[in-house]
């Protein structure tokens, strides 16, 4: 198994790579295009963007220029907060697809649970899914309370919930709920901001395996059955991040990393966010 062949299967049968490239803060144009070319050459088959990242055009251009067949690349984008609501989301989707230059999207996510809007936003995603414009639909940054409320009216369960996830923020309750409801958890900011690399536990485990702290953290995601999308625009790091399928963490090492949890967020709290 390697980055090119490692997939999970979503509740609707769609295959999604365990590891992808996140392009948050990658500048549209040359920077994001080079990052995607490096990732595809390294075997990545999943790219995660969002309308809020303002680089969908570069993502689409890089995919089109690559030698990798479109059907092999899993593309995710997200509807931003200002565009939430039923009609607004449908319009935002069309805009994103125009920028990406794609006919069908692999995964469309509700970026944040905007109060009084995300149910209507979800209804729009269901419409897009039923029309065959999206292969899978999901949410991002949803806590258990948001998911429970969404389930009250949803015709289709979210297939993915993308959340901040790393050893300092293990989100046990959200992951348990998603596991019970067959919602695939996906991690954003899996490497914190890099400050966790100096943690003694992380360093010792990395040394024991002859791996980098980043590789250990990404492997920890996989051990927890969490899809992960580390972001980088550096070719060397993109390749390095992909080399996580040739080793495993022991039960004790996983437990040690789990115990680092501090409920520490680097991003906004979904219950109180203002973006």
UniProtKB/TrEMBL annotation:
Q: Does the keyword NADP apply?
A: yes
Q: Which UniProt keywords apply?
A: NADP, Oxidoreductase
Is NADP included in the keywords of this UniProt record? yes
- Which Pfam families does the UniProt record give? Aldo_ket_red
Q: Which residues form the NADP-dependent oxidoreductase domain?
A: 24-261
Under the heading PROSITE patterns, the entry gives: ALDOKETO_REDUCTASE_1 (PS00798), ALDOKETO_REDUCTASE_2 (PS00062)
The UniProt entry, under InterPro entries, shows:
AKR, AKR5G, Aldo/ket_reductase_CS, NAD(P)_OxRdtase_dom_sf, NADP_OxRdtase_dom
Give the family this protein belongs to, as stated in its UniProt record. Belongs to the aldo/keto reductase family.
Q: What is this protein called?
A: Aldo/keto reductase
Which organism was this protein described from? Alkalihalophilus lindianensis
